[in-house]
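User: Thanks for the earlier help. One more: RNA polymerase subunit sigma-70. Can you show the sequence and predicted structure together?

Assistant: Of course, both are below.
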Amino acid sequence: MYEPFDETAARVLLAVNPGDSIRTVAQHLHTPYETVRQAVNQLEDRGYLRYDDGLFVTDDRVRKAARDLLVTSAGVNPPSIEEAYVLPQFGDWPFAFTQVDAVYVWTQGGYQVGRDPDDYPLFLTVLEEDADAWQRFFERFGIPTGFERRPEDSFEAPLQVVLDERSVLNPDHVEGYPVISRGETIEFMREHYATFQSALAMLNRMYDDLDLDVSYRESEREWS
């Protein structure tokens, strides 16, 4: 009865949105397709999942048990930075990566600047009505969460989550990551041009529909 219910299975159960394909779940988890397929097959055989033009969890109590399993695991082995990027997929509310993490997502991991593994904030946009729920969610995993970045010496763990509240949230999706729009991300990069000049050039090369003029006249503090 318990054979398929390991940590991989728990992640799959939590990442499934009603009607998802196996490939979509693999993208959410950033896990090889074959690994997810095997877990899905076992979960389906045991009745935890059903397939009906997409995947569906058969009982929400199973999702709760899966989340409890991961919370317990996090108490022994705290989430790594890589795992922290997947962790929001296990929440029950919409979100999008923003600020420097939006740059990371839109450049498909090609631009990751100024990130200290010993002091690593994760920037998420969430709906105002969900903010408290998100705080409780991350704190269950031992990750400090707030609305402003905290000093490194204010907590022990390297990870923290910084939330940005909005009344409306319509994320784009890039390689399985929900993210603020490319236009808003570019605006953020221009506001911090010294940091993201090369990332703007990278976006120009990556997306054929972009034709950004990334030159900047510092004396006039404006874009040419």
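User: Great, one quick takeaway?

Assistant: Strands lie at 49-51, 55-57, 95-97, 120-127, 145-146, 159-166, 172-174, 177-179, 216-217, 222-223.
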